[in-house]
Model the fold of this input.
Amino acid sequence: MDKLMGFRMSFLGSLRVFLSGVLLCVCNLTTMGSELPIVLNQASSLGKPFVVPSNVPWVETTIRLTKGKRYRISAQESACYKDDVVPCTADGARGLLGWSFDRCVRSPGRWNLFRYVGPGVTKRLRVLKDESEERRRASFLTLIATIGMDDSKASTRVIGRCREFDAVESGTLFLFCNDWPGGIGTQGENRFRNPAKSGAKSLPTYGNNHGHLSVTVEEITPSR
Done:
């Protein structure tokens, strides 16, 4: 009887520890989900790969670009890199579903029914094309680079999987995966966020993105 009682006590103790652990994990996941940031500060340096998550509107690197110098930025997407259910690469939406989604809803128009979905202003991708001589077109989850935290500046560059470019001004390099802002305002944090929601839903358009990019930034030395 004593052995049976001891076994029960031991089993109940182990079960209690196990359930406590599960509860702690759930709480941690919930907390993590409710703290999806607008800006992520990412330690980075030239020549070494670092991560750019697809669900964060701004990734601030610790790399400073210098006006007039030439740089190469390359990116490789992780498995399951997608905007909700739309498969993507660092170059943008892919496949028949991606092509259809991109062509129909990347910019506002009377045929874009998604413009009426969710909170905030009319849906429009943050970057449709950059202002460089190449004027590269941007799609969903395309990698974009800016100098400073402003995606409307002429220094914005559509990177995709790889691009070389000359920095037109000096400043801190910011990166992001292209998507609708989708917030309730036109400026500041609420350009991306809906304060009435929590977790991934607090960022209506970025919260449903999956995967990340592995990015490398290199300074290119001119050949003599």
User: Anything to note?
Assistant: Helices lie at 2-33, 95-105. The first helix runs from residue 2 to 33.
